[in-house]
Amino acid sequence: MALKLELPYTTHRLSNGLRVFVHEDHSLPLAAVNLWYHVGSKDERPGRTGFAHLFEHIMFEGSLNVPKGEFDELLEAVGGTNNGSTSTDRTNYWETVPSNAVELALFLEADRMGWLLDTMSQDKLDAQRDVVKNERRQSYENRPYGLAFETLSKALYPPAHPYHWPIIGWMEDLDAATLDDVIGFFRTYYTPGNATLAIAGDVDTDRVMREVEKQFGAIRPGQTVPAVITPPARLPGNVFLTLEDDVHLPRLYLAWHTPKIFEDGDAELDVASAILAHGKSSRLYRRLVYQLGIAQDVDAYQDSALLGSTFTIAVTARPGVTIDDIARHTFSVLRELAHDAPVEEVLRAVRRVETAVVGSLQCVGGFGGRADRLNHYAFYVGEPDYVAEDLARYTQTTPDAISRAVQSWLLDEPFVALTIVPRGEADRALQELRS
Amino acid sequence: MSGRSIPVVGPPGLVRTPPYVRTQLAGGLTVVAVPRHDLPLVDLQLIVPAGAVRNLRATAGLASMTAEMLDEGTKVRTAIELSEAIDLLGADLDIRVTWDATLAGMHVLSPRLEEALRLLAEMLLEPTFPEEELERKREERLNALRQDRDEPRAVAARTLARAVFGDHPYGVPIHGLEDSVRRLQRDAIEADYRMHFSGSRAFLVVAGDIDVDALFRLADELFGGWSRPSQDIATPPLPEARRRRIVLVDRPGAPQSEVRFGHFGPARNTELYFPLIVANTVLGGSFKSRLNMRLREEKGYTYGASSAFGFRKYAGAFSGGTAVFTDVTDDTIRITLEELQKIAEQGATVEEVERARQYLAYGFARNLEMTSDLVSALSDVVLYELPDDYLDRYSGNVLSVGVDDVRAAARACFDPEHVAIAVVGDRARIEGPLEKLGMPLEVWEVE
Predict the structure, then answer these.
(1) Residue A173 neighbours by CB under 8 Å, 6+ apart
(2) Which residues pair with A258 in a beta bridge?
(3) CB pairs below 8 Å between A and B: how many?
(4) pLDDT digits (tens), chain A, 435 positions
(5) To pair with B252 at 20 to 30 A between CA atoms, which of B1, B109, B173, B389?
(6) Do A197 and A245 sit in the same domain of this protein?
């Protein structure tokens, strides 16, 4: 089955450096506006962690011509929806609106790109700081296993590496953020030259570009963004960590450094994660949950990012099972996959990716929709319509390549092993790897 | 900067739902098909109108176990073989149970639709409920239920349901309780399946890149003979509504309290449906809602607060909640009750009603973007026996809701006198302040 995926678009550049991609599709009267700022937690420094994400919140608190509270009000009144997100690498914002309201969405984004500081205040900072601290409590601290990822990142990356700290930041750093930090951060990173704007859906390219020029054209270009300094991230040897938490069942996490997003091996490891842990017929599920009955659940994923990716396996032990057993069987499954990745297993994993990619193209907006994809590919590979090539990385991979990736990036490399155990049961954690 | 002003947005163009075709097979199965060819993709859902409301407390979790056993073995395939076959199609299978129905959905590229539908038919018509798979599922579920005890949000939701509905099926988690799951027998599951799964009452909804005639032929071949008498579901009456009270579950040292509130709500076919969704949008159904504005934006207590009606076939629920830092738990409840009281007595302002109407009506197109959206919208139409032109008339119906309609509906359906409040948090720090709120306080253990 030959699948032809296309994302036809035109590209434009304003004199202040803002790059714009427009994709027309008139099948529904909807339009998506999607703006990526090339700033994430990677651009923070120790002592001010969590700032990029805190700043994302502040972006919703009004600008010169949009009084506080009006941003959502204006969008809800036209039937629009919006959101934003911060990753290690970038911050994105989007609005999906009935197409008659695309001008409003552009106006709102332009106003906060150009005129945010005119109404910035200590009160706004303090209020959003509280919201973010609650988000940290709700999504991480008060959630079982919720501190796993920040514990892993801390161990995988040295303190000066921008992936060392969590995107949400450390609580004490959130407290330390000042109004001057907000102003400096905005001036440095929220500039037209450090952003790309994608518009997708029921729009006329010429008309919408005139509107973009009108809304964004007067915004001053900014300075060049400071380079991110990344010290090498390589584990000298295996690291074993234990964390006590309010949980009933211990869970083992194994994490490795793996190739950067879109580098050789990235797609292969993504496929490997599916072969290992996605669905009932996956290898870890079948062995640990189904045949041996020693695990409650298994998970694996390649978390692909700009400065380096992480491959993680997570296995929750059933009551009465030792983590040593979990680790031993997990590694033996990995070794089998490095030895032989049957064609059919690879095909199953690849086909699921295929369905997911095609499915994501149904939406013009939102996270992972067409506008977001244009910006995603522009940022990571410099080609907004890379979707077909992206999918080809999967459809053209081979069982051999999968096996090699598992061998060279996982089995031949050191890892971080974190066991999250019920309180008072630290002695149940994995302390070493016995073969 | 002068010359920049907020663009004026006129009313949007009319959104028409893609036309759909409906037919009934000889065996009784109703098929609804929506062709859409922009991408080579199909979503489909088989709806058996037998939901978890048929669970009794002693057999809690039975309905969802019957459903989850459908892909654990058939006359021709083992559980693993089924899973491999589905994955080889690159398909997603999603089987779940709501209070009103068992839903088996698939999402697949259109060239593989036929194979996917054959697999779905095999699972629905020829399941074998193998004993060893049941034991595996039972063990998984018991552990999941134990894990839920660590999850404050899960504990809060479950506590609220019990506080509002008591021993009524709605008061017991859909996935059951540890003791009821331990007792589920294979024979009972098979009997449950025989009693409730029949093509004569089921619906198949398909949207996407399909040839309608070919689909009908295939459905007829696969499901045409699927008919057997199935039993009506007797729904126990709701218990008497309890007076307002707080139920507290201790979570020592928790940095946050999970707060939930709720009471009975109307059934899906209520005439007040449109005024109520507008009223709830004002109270807690959107970012700009009163609850989110006060608790998140004004007070900074929380990352978000919301509320919703859970409309169901027979009777429904109204519930909402938030997670707040521990020291403001009592004030959060005070504010929540204040807002509930206010909307129940006064309804909403003209501006609020207008914004909520537009939010719901103009945003409706976004709910039709994906083939899975279409399937889900049409599933509700068939399951709840909504008019055939329901989707086309949705926006108009919402836009015609007036301030008086909202006030009347709010008065009829928000019930601050009988609201139950469930709190999962650090008892040592919050019990004192909660006692001062002036309503009965009960301390419960996690079930």
Answers:
(1) A47, A48, A49, A50, A51
(2) A309
(3) 208
(4) 566 788 999 999 999 999 999 999 998 899 999 999 999 999 999 999 999 999 999 999 999 999 988 998 899 889 999 999 999 999 999 999 999 999 999 999 999 999 999 999 999 999 999 989 988 998 898 889 999 999 999 999 999 999 999 999 999 999 999 999 989 999 999 999 999 999 999 999 999 999 999 999 999 999 999 999 899 899 999 999 999 999 999 999 999 999 999 999 999 999 999 999 999 899 999 999 999 999 999 999 999 999 999 999 999 999 999 999 999 999 999 999 999 999 999 999 999 999 999 999 999 999 999 999 999 999 999 999 999 999 999 999 999 999 999 999 999 999 999 999 999 999 999 998 876
(5) B173
(6) no
B375, B45 in Cβ contact below 8 A? yes
Q: Do A28 and B364 touch (CB under 8 A)?
A: no
A381 and A323 in a common domain = yes
Q: Does B95 touch chain A (CB under 8 A)?
A: no
**Total domain count for chain A?**
2
Handedness of CA B171, B174, B176, B181 (dihedral sign): positive
* Residue B102 token pair: 């068992």
- CATH code at position A339: 3.30.830.10
Complete edge-to-edge strand list for the sheet that includes strand A295-303: A239-245, A416-422, A251-258, A309-317, A295-303
What's the gap in Å between the CA of B241 and the closest CA on chain A?
A: 31
Residues A109, A115, A117, A119, CA torsion sign = negative
Q: Give the orientation angle of helix B131-148 with respect to helix B152-165, to 10 degrees.
A: 100
Chain B residues within 8 A of A352 when measuring between CB atoms: 87, 90, 92
Q: B298 to chain A nearest CA, in Å?
A: 8
The domain that contains B156 carries what CATH number? 3.30.830.10
Task: Dihedral sign for Cα A328, A331, A336, A337, please.
Answer: positive
Residues of A in contact with B39 (CB under 8 A): 358, 361-362
For A301, list phi and psi in degrees, rounded to 5: -160, 155
- How many angstroms separate the CA of residue A170 from the nearest CA in chain B? 15
